[in-house]
Amino acid sequence: GIDSVQLYAEHPLRFTRAVNHVDLHNVTPQVLELKSFRPKLKFMPELASNNLSDLIDEPAPEWSCTDWFNLPEGTDSLSLEKLKGKIVVLTFWAGFDLNGKTRQRLDELSYLYDVFGSETDIEFVTIHDSMLKPFEVELIVRNWNIPFPVGCDNEGFTSFKSYKVNQIPQTVLIDPAGTLKYYEVEG
Prior knowledge:
Largest sheet: 6 strands, mixed
Number of strands: 9
Oligomer: single chain
Strand order of the largest sheet: 4-7-6-5-8-9
Order of helices and strands: EEEEEHEHEHEE
């Protein structure tokens, strides 16, 4: 059996964290003091499923999507050009991973969207692969209650290829100037 767990508590808007070990044989109320921390930004190959290292600090490739769901009112598509000046949290995914890492990542993004979605300088964008027809992607978006924009990649996985995504899910962060800054970090 498991004798102890490590408890992490983080502030959603600041780099503050508390880490505590809890003995499961003697559980008591915990008082955690959040302290500043710096995320480790060094590339960690053991965490990466895709190697996007040659895209870091370069202009992020423009994506190419056929259909969009959950767009901001008054828009019919999204592009990096339209999002200049915003931080873009871009995630590549596919609906065949119903209960795996993709579903978990989309749940994490939904939580982050609840926290940051009303901020005017951050945009959450996801791109589904081109294996499903747009109406099938729309059903997944509705059934999974995905609140942020979802694009359907062009035939031939155009966007996936330009970002060198071979395994999903893959999330990248693009800065307000349109530069790809991060794709795998710890903390």
